[in-house]
Amino acid sequence: MTDDSPLDSALLSRIDTSKPHQARVWNYWLGGKDNYPADRELAEKLRDVYPGMEDIARHTRVFLGRAVRYLAGKAGIRQFLDIGTGLPTVDHTHEVAQRVDPTSRVVYVDNDPLVLVHARALLASDPRGACDYIEADVREPDTILAFAAKTLDFSRPTALMLLGVMGTVFDDDQAYALVRRLMDALPSGSYLVFEDGTNIVKPDAAAAAERLRDKGEVYEYRLRTPAEITRFFDGLELVDPGVVSVSLWGLESEAFGLPPEVDAFCAVARKP
Q1: Other beta carbons less than 10 A from residue 204's beta carbon
Q2: I need a labelling partner for 220 at 20 to 30 A (CA). Which of 53, 183, 213, 255 fits?
Q3: DSSP reduced 3-state for 193
Q4: Angle at CA 54, nearest 5°, toward 49 and 59?
Q5: Long-range contacts of range 13-18, CB-CB < 8 Å, 24 or more positions apart?
Q6: How far, in Å, are 59, 107, 138 from residue 168 at the CA level?
Q7: What is the value of pTM for the model shown?
Q8: Strand 264-270 and strand 244-245: pairing?
Q9: For the CA atoms of 218, 219, 225, 227, what is the dihedral angle to 10 degrees?
Q10: End-to-end alpha-carbon separation of the chain, Å?
Q11: Nearest CA to 267 among 188, 195, 189?
């Protein structure tokens, strides 16, 4: 899709506003406007059983900015493959990266038609860089890599961004294999930026949310332990401070103490 792609009725008809969608629920928690009554109802139901869900969403968004600034700045990365990007809010990957270096190139991937509708905002690239959007699922790595190669040069170091997406893949072996397949396509010096939900900070609240999921009242999402998240980085070199809560990664100052942990853990790691 490009900036001037038409928004036809066939695309709009694929958006089911009667059922909540993860991307739109998170958009609501982040203060966005691209959500519907079903999304808001679910967001409030989740917040009732897990107070502070919006804090997880907001700390994850802040982590994205810190990680991209680190990669575009200190690590010198100029290419980003962002899978499961979600709906445009503020400080998306290309905005953060191109503030550091306008030549940065970003490819976004998502499987929600509403994200495709809003892809024009995602593609508002600095003309010195580039942005593109692929409608695909993380379970289609070969499709993603083939289309992303039209914008990104996979002979050069690239950052693979997987924030809040692998929880949609329940089978552990499949989830680890998908990440390996994507990282295997990237050269030495590339990075993995990963975040997903956990259940250790507020275990009782997380268990209540999972019961809603098991009753079919919440979108399908698999919470993993920090140890299980750490396995996604096998063979890679973790950047300090390693696997931690998103609220604690890349803090710019500890003058006023550390923020509380939230149930989403993350890390950034380099491919040797």
Answers
A1: 9
A2: 183
A3: strand
A4: 130
A5: 14/113, 15/113, 15/114, 15/117
A6: 20, 20, 9
A7: 0.90
A8: antiparallel
A9: 180
A10: 33
A11: 195
86: left (phi over 0), alpha (psi -120 to 50) or beta: left
The residue type at 64: L
Residue 260: CB atoms within 10 Å: 12
Cα distance between residue 242 and residue 255, in whole Å? 21
Q: Count CA atoms closer than 13 A to 209's CA, side-chain side.
A: 26
The candidate with the shortest Cα–Cα distance to 116, out of 2, 216, 219, 227, is: 2
Beta bridge partners of 238: 269
User: Exposed, middle or buried by CB within 10 Å (0-12, 13-18, 19+), for 71?
Assistant: buried
Please state, as a whole number, how many other Cβ atoms lie within 10 Å of the Cβ of residue 197.
Answer: 21
Say which amino acid occupies 89.
T
pLDDT digits (tens, 9 = 90+) for 182-205: 999 999 999 999 999 999 999 999
Instruction: Output phi, psi for 131, to 5 deg.
Output: -135, 145
Per-position b or e across 40-70, b if 16+ CB within 10 A of its CB? eebbebbeebbebbbbbbbbbbbbbbbbbbb
Per-residue pLDDT band for 2 (boundaries 50, 70, 90) equals very low
What tens digit of pLDDT does each residue of 210-244 get?
898 888 887 888 999 999 999 999 999 999 999 99
